[in-house]
Structures are given as structure tokens and as C-alpha cells.
Amino acid sequence: MDKTAYKNVFVFIEQREGIIQSVALELLGKAQDLAQALNEKVVALFAGSGIAAEAQSLIEYGADEIIVMDSPELKYYLTEPYTQALSQAITQFKPGIVLFGATTIGRDLGPRLSARLNTGLTADCTRLEISEEGELMMTRPAFGGNLMATILCSDHRPQMSTVRPGVMQKRERETGRKGSIIPFAAQFDTSKFKVRLIENVKEDKGKVDITEAKILVSGGRGVGSKDNFDKLARLAETLNAQLSASRAVVDSGLVDHDRQVGQTGKTVRPDLYFAFGISGAIQHLAGMEESEFIVAVNKDKYAPIFSVCDLGIVGDVNKIVPLLTERLQP
Amino acid sequence: MNIVVCIKQVPDTTEIKINPETGTLIRDGVPSIMNPDDKGGLEMALMLKDTCNAHVTVITMGPPQAESILREAFAMGVDRAILLTDRRFAGADTLATSHALAGALRTLDFDLIITGRQAIDGDTAQVGPQMAEHLQLPQISYVAGLTCNDSNLLTVKKETEEGYQILEVELPCLLTVLATANKARYMSVQGIMESFDKEMEIWDADKIEVDKEKLGLKGSPTRVKKSFTKAQKGAGEVFEVDAEEAVGIIISKLKEKFIIK
Amino acid sequence: MDFSLTKQEELFLQMIREFAEKEVKPLAAAVDEDERFPLETVKKMSKIGLLGIPVPKACGGQGGTNQIYSMAVEELSRVCGTTGVIMSAHTSLCMAPILENGTEEQKQKYLPNLASGNWIGAFGLTEPNAGTDAGMQQTTAVDAGDKWLLNGSKIFITNAGYAHVYIVMAMTDKSLGTKGISAFIIEKGMPGFSIGKKEKKMGIRGSSTCELIFENCEVPKENLLGKEGKGFAIAMKTLDGGRIGIAAQALGIAQGAIDETVKYTKERKQFGKPVASFQNTQFQMADLETKVQAARLLVRSAAYKKDHNLPYSADAAMAKLFAAETAMEVTIKAVQFHGGYGYTREYAVERMMRDAKITEIYEGTSEVQRMVIAGKLFR
């Protein structure tokens, strides 16, 4: 194949009910780095119904061009209509790179598209770089976060990857930034539409998004009882922070799964991460070690968490937490 | 109804540790298990066998020792088990793997294909949807439950970040199932006693309907360039002081870093 | 001589370990604390066939071996001694004598329901004045023409109250001594049969241990198990088999205490290093591990002989004697390694130490086992 025919860094803009998802903006931020290294453009692939008005914001977050696929068939995400629209756009515009968020949508659409386009796809990347040869180096965790692998897709185009939400950083919005909007009318073969959405249910009661928090107060097995978690919650409240936890605590039922940090939970990178009574198993570290500033408190001075923290205290969590809460009162 | 469940043998990644001196994975003594999401999918199929008299076939691609998860599947109650094993499959990425499995499925009768959402060794979640594309089947991923309304329609619950969706899909189709969709049954004692008497079919690449160029390493668009264990970030300062002093240190440090005012 | 596991045994171990870890272990502390019979666990066990392992398929069982059965008792006891003994009493003390001595009608009437776990089984031999000296039975059975009438009581009966079927020994002819004892199959609800007081025990506190009371209890003629006068022989043979189960229980408890201690001493640090890194810990634990493995081989060998219809009475006695004493030694030392924490109910070794003690007592005390072994030695 003529690889030189494939150019520019495309980002699939995930929207739900017309609302652009934060992962799409994170990818636009990263795409700018990649496009700069390649001296190419950032192109947003924006599919939905009645979404045209949102396009300008994508330009302000870093897209140079926007391919808008506005059609009633694309109102909700369903695998087949989106695969048809996206595969047609990719076939026509020939991107060098296509990025998706590693969400339930991106991880459904990405592999389907990769098979239709006969190209590679690398899942759940946490690092993307351009090699000296101008190839996309996609780095991702494997074996439960124990190993990192850098993957290339040398002989097929486009190079595609899904990227974990919360890992890349979105740019500051640059109001008034200029870019071009390219409408694209996909041709749908509706005979292939075999899945129908009956109901979309949101269960947002009590659901929190710890990946969005600036400060996280996280507790592990060392915190112990429910009472002690209530103390952590009070500290979190004082700091205007969110409460999160390690897997051991979530497994014991003290804290909801939504708040779990780590390989099987969420990847977080807050400005400040408190690790109280968390020993720092590799699975946990995988989810939080990118935090800007980590404060760890643990009674075991050999706990692995101390090897990744910025400030460590060997001491009793249940003495330190109430005292810290008191001292931080406004 | 004929159901084919695709399962994979994986190392139990929760048991993997890193040698702190060499920074390499310690894989010795790590047990091999049936991938948890696949087991959730297998249970879903077995529930349909219990309620709708479905015929359940399991298929796995892997080295000869992957036989053990097929024996486990027999002991859980499946009717037929196929091991796809051939050196020509080796080195496959997700796309090449999906071609091999799709090739095997072309030779089987099925109404429903079930896979796990993803395998814990790679966590890619790609092989299921890629197979669905090769076989021109509708797919639903992240499946947490289903009901079989009539012979040709399934109502499926799909988990999303925000909650869940209820979807309706025509058969034949492919579902990728979550481990949390159900609680997989245990092997029964009688199932264990009998599982080694059952015939396990061993298939090689000649037995399946696929373009051989699409298999194994040469059929894989992606290559691992390098793999490495994560570099540990340098440790910060650690203090062993009483609670009062500790709180003082935390607060002054956070002020110094302008994290709090 | 082949010491390796068969493929079935390997697969079975994988299943039973997962079952023990996920279904049994989480309840173990509460079952002990609340003295609660874990009926929900028994239901789960019956669903996958654990309550009918060494019973042939023709009798509604799983067609498994005694080897696999003893592995099951071991693995369950490794996390919960209570669950181990429920299974052992049901299998070895109730189903086995019916299988070995029952008529075709008795087998078809009782075994499918027992092996499927619909019914739980129990066994009644011990009386207030007939413990180790089991020949001193006071319970009587009188031939009343169309039925037997039983009078007397049995004590320390495992599974009592929850069991539907009880194998009960009673004197049919006192003048004949032990040769005047007969075995009966008693069903819950038979007129004149009731359950007496429940014991409050040191260990295996979730198992139900009660008195059985017979007051002119009417037992159908066809419920005589084996021939009249063969009850003592049936009881002794049943206990031979039961000892494999209890040996496996003791072995499991010992292994569980080793597991807990290895985990704890690796985590627990004193003087700046893990307790496991001290040579005192390592040497003592090495000795204990060796004894546990020796006990395991004794249990395996006794189960093997039973499976292959070889004489196993002394083997079962040795397995039980050694496994029980090993369990006691290991659990006492496990508590010691845990220090102050080991003496609290926060840690499982406290329970294990209490559970271990009974294995030196029931189904023949360690002294009885020595009598059996010496009996063979000095024959």
C-alpha cells in the first residue's frame, strides 16, 4: 500500500445526546502533539444528529478540520450505522492515524472498523508518540498493568488506537481559533441494521466520576472500618475533594466500585492524591501514579506506595486524618 | 438454538509479580485459568441450555495445553469442545486471531456466538467485534444480560459508563459478555468425572475456512516493538513522626506546592 | 507406585479450591461466632454434587472416588472445619453404611435423596455411658411384630436436627453383648423420635451436635440395616471409613493454619523485617509443613486402599491419629506465630486451633486409633 497517501491525525469525537465527551477533547490535545511532530493536521470525525452547532468548540480545542456527519441514522451510537459512516469517511479522507476514546463506544466501534478497513488497532493506549521514522508508537499496559508494550502498525493504514480516558490532557480552549468544517454525507445500507435501541437508562444516583476530580482522598485496607471511612469522607468534604479507594476496600463493600482506582478501576491523575492506608499494589499504582502530587500515609514503612509518593508519612492513618481535617477547617 | 462460545486460556494476571531486582515478570507458578469474561459468557450459554435446550459448543485457540479449559467447560456442561491449535496461528494479533476464529465458525452451525468482552492478559476487547465483522453479524458488546423472546430475537442488556441500554438484536448475532453478567456455575463432580471421557476435537488451520495469509504473525497488522516493566518514579521524602508533626508537614508541603492556600 | 494426581483429581481440586475460597471461607468466621449451621452452603454443595461423591451413579451419586471425596473434605476444612465435618458425617457415616450394607430397596429409597443433598445424613452410636466403650449400648430395639420399637438416647450426634436420615445402633439382644447390637435406618418424623439438647462446643461450632431421643420410636421392619446382630460390626466398619473423612478434615485444618501463618509472617514485620525471614520461623514452619505433607500421604494412602477394596482399617486409624495430632500441633504453633493477634478472633488461626481439637476426639479418640493400630501390630 502507498502509505504516503495517508495523512493527518483523525480523532473520533465521541458525543452522547449531543454532548461532546471529555475524552474527545483529551484526544484532540494529544493529536496536536502528534500532528505537530508529523507536520500534519488534526481532523475531527464528528458524527451525530443535529450536532453542527457544536463543531466550532472542537476547533477551539485543537481541531484544524472537522468532518461533520450529521444524519438521523447517527443520533445514538449503534455499531453498524457508525461503522458505515466512519469507514466511508476514512476510506475517502485517508488519515494516517485515527484515535478513539477507550470507552464502551470506542471499544465497540474501533475493532469493528479495523476489521472492515483491514488495519490494526491497539487498545487502551496510555502513551502515543511519533517515532523517528514517522510511525505512531502506541504504548499500552498488558498483563494486568504489570507490563507495558509499545506497538507499531507499520504496513497498514490508518494506524488506529483507542486511548484510556483521563490519560491524555486536553488543551486550554482557544476561543476564536479558526478551522474548516467539511460536511460528509454517508450512504447507509439500512438492510444491515439489525440492532435496535429500546431504552437508554442512566443510573446516575450516587455515581461520581473520580477521573474528573482535582483532589482525591483515597483509602485502602489500612483504613479499616466504615467509621474510619466516614472520617476520610469528612476530610474529602473539607478539601472539596472526592473519596476514592483501592480494590480491597471496594471488594469488601465499604466503597462503591465507581470510586475504585487502579487497573480494574479508574485511571486518575488529580493534582493531589492522598493514599491513606494503601500499601500500593502494582494494580493500584497503575491507576494513580501519574497524579501530580501524591501524599501517602501508611503504618508500614516498607509499603510500596512510598516508592511512588512525593510525600510519605509513616504513621497511623486514623490519628492523622481527623487531625488534618481539623487543621484544614476554613 | 446452537450457541458457540469462544473462550481463552489466560495466565491469572492477579498472580503475576515483578522481580524487583531484574524488573521482569515472574510467570513461574502463575496458574492458567479460563478468562473470566469468557466464563461469564459460557454461563450465559449454559443458562440458555437449561432454559431453552440450546446446544452449546466451546472453541478455543491456543497451544495444546489449552485443552484444560475445554475439559473444564465439559465439566460445566457443554456439549461439544474444539481446540484450534496450529503453529500457523502463532504470533497472531487481535485481527489475525479473529480471522482464525471466524474461519472455524464458518464451518459450524450457529445462531448465537458468545465471546467474553476482553481477556485479562491483553484487555483489548477487540477479537469479538472483529469476528462479527468477518462473519457479517450484528454485534453487541459489554453484555450484562439477555432474554430470548422468540426464536429470532434477543433482548440484550448492555452496560455503559452511564448505566445500561436495552437493545434488541436479530439472530444470528455475536455478543461479548462481561464476567459480572452472572455468577458462573462450578464444575459438577459428575461433570469432572466424565469430562475426560468426552471427545475433544482438535483442529488445525487446514480444517477451517479462511485465507491462510490472514493468519498468525504474517496476518497481523500490529507488532510489539518492545515491552518493558514500568519505571518506578523516584520516591519522595518519607517522614516517620508523630501525628501532630505529620499533619504540620503535610500542610506546609501542600502550601509550598500551591495545592492549597 | 504413583503419587501424581489424576487429571480428574487435578480438575476437581481446581473446582473445590475455588468453591472453598469463594463460598465457604467468607462465612467461616460468622458460622463459628454465631454457632450457625451453614445451610446455604450445604445447598450450594448439593447443587454441584459434593454431597454424593463416592456413591455410584446407579444410586444417584456422582460416581467419584474416596480419594476425591477426601480431597473435598480437606479443601473445605482448610477454610472452615464446620463445613468439613458436615460433609464427612453425611458421606462416611450415613451413606457409606447404607451403600455397603443396605438392601437394594434401602439403597434406592435413601441413597438418591442423600447423594443429591435433598436429605442430610447422620449417625448415632455414642451414648452417655457408651463412648470409647461402644459395646455398652443402652438403647434397645424390640421386635413388636410388624415393627421395631426403639428406646433410649444417643448423644453428640453430628448433623442432628438438620439430618433426615440417621443410622442408629440399638441392642436387639442384650445377652449377646456386641453381637446383640443391630443397625437401623431412622427417618426424621418417625413416631417417638425427637431431637434433644444442642451442645455448646469449643470448636466446629457451626455444626449441629445434639442428642437423639427414642421413646417407643416405631421403626418399620424393613429399616433394619444389615442382619440382626451385625450392628456393631457395621458401626466399626463405618467408623473405619469415617476416619478417612476426619483425617482429611484434620489435614485441611492444619493446611489452613499453615496458609494463614505463611501469609501473616510474610506481612508482619518486627525489628524491621518480616517475621517470615527469621530462621526460627522458617525452621519451625518447615517441620510443620513436613508433618502436614506426611499426614496427607497417609490420608491418600488410606483412601486409595478403600477405593481399591484393600484392607484399610489400620491405615485409616494411622491417618486420623497422625493428621489430628498434626492439626493440633500446627494450629497451636500458628497461634504462637501470630502473637497477640493470633489469640483474637480477628485472625482465623484462633478458630482453627479450637476446631482442631475435636479431630483428636470424635470417631475414635487418638487412644482408640492407637488401639486399632496396635491391634493389627500385635495380632
Description:
- The complex is a heterotrimer of chains A (330), B (261) and C (379).
- In chain A, 26% of the residues lie in helices and 27% in strands.
- Chain A is of the alpha/beta class.
- Chain A folds into two domains: 190 residues, HUPs (Rossmann fold, 3-Layer(aba) Sandwich); 113 residues, Rossmann fold (3-Layer(aba) Sandwich).
- Chain A has a seven-stranded parallel beta sheet, with helices on both faces. In chain A, strands 15-14-16-17-18 form a five-stranded parallel beta sheet.
- In chain A, α7 links the parallel β16 and β17.
- In chain A, α3 packs across α4 and α5 packs parallel to α8.
- The longest helix of chain A is centred in the first third of the chain and has 17 residues.
- Chain A is elongated, with a radius of gyration of 22 Å.
- Chain B has a single domain, classed as Rossmann fold.
- Chain B contains six helices and 15 strands.
- In chain B, α3 packs across α4.
- Chain C is an alpha+beta fold.
- Chain C is built from ten helices and ten strands.
- In chain C, the strands form three sheets. A four-stranded mixed beta sheet of chain C has the order 1-4-5-8.
- The radius of gyration of chain C is 21 Å and the shape is globular.
- The mean pLDDT of chain C is 96.
- Chains in contact: A-B, B-C.
- The interface between A and B is large, with 81 and 79 residues.
Give Rg of chain C in angstroms.
21 Å
Topology of chain C as a string of helices (H) and strands (E): HHHHHEEEEEEEEHEEHHHH
CATH C-level name of the largest domain in chain A? Alpha Beta
Overall pLDDT confidence of chain A: 92
Number of helices of chain C: 10
Biggest interface: A-B, 81 and 79 residues
Shape of chain C: globular
Q: Give the distance, in angstroms, between the N- and C-terminal Cα atoms of chain A.
A: 64 Å
State the helical fraction of chain C. Answer: 40-55%
Major sheet details of chain A: 7 strands, parallel
Number of strands of chain C: 10
Task: Give the topology, please.
The complex is a heterotrimer of chains A (330), B (261) and C (379).
Chain A: E1 9-13, E2 15-16, E3 19-20, H1 22-38, E4 42-48, H2 55-60, E5 65-70, H3 79-93, E6 97-101, H4 106-117, E7 121-125, E8 127-130, E9 136-142, E10 147-152, E11 159-163, E12 180-183, E13 195-202, E14 215-219, H5 226-238, E15 242-245, H6 247-251, E16 272-276, H7 282-288, E17 293-298, E18 311-314, H8 317-328
Parallel strand pairs in A: 1-4, 1-6, 4-5, 5-12, 6-11, 7-11, 14-15, 14-16, 16-17, 17-18
Antiparallel strand pairs in A: 2-3, 8-9, 9-10
Chain B: E1 2-7, E2 9-11, E3 17-18, E4 25-26, E5 32-34, H1 36-52, E6 55-61, H2 67-76, E7 80-84, H3 94-105, E8 112-116, H4 127-134, E9 139-150, E10 153-159, E11 163-170, E12 173-177, H5 189-195, E13 200-203, E14 223-228, E15 237-239, H6 243-256
Parallel strand pairs in B: 1-6, 1-8, 6-7, 7-13, 8-12, 9-12
Antiparallel strand pairs in B: 2-5, 3-4, 9-10, 10-11
Helix pairs in contact in B: 2-5, 3-4
Chain C: H1 7-33, H2 39-47, H3 66-79, H4 81-101, H5 104-115, E1 121-124, E2 140-143, E3 147-158, E4 165-171, E5 181-187, E6 193-198, E7 209-220, E8 224-225, H6 231-267, E9 269-270, E10 273-274, H7 279-307, H8 313-342, H9 348-358, H10 366-377
Parallel strand pairs in C: 1-4
Antiparallel strand pairs in C: 2-3, 3-7, 4-5, 5-8, 6-7, 9-10
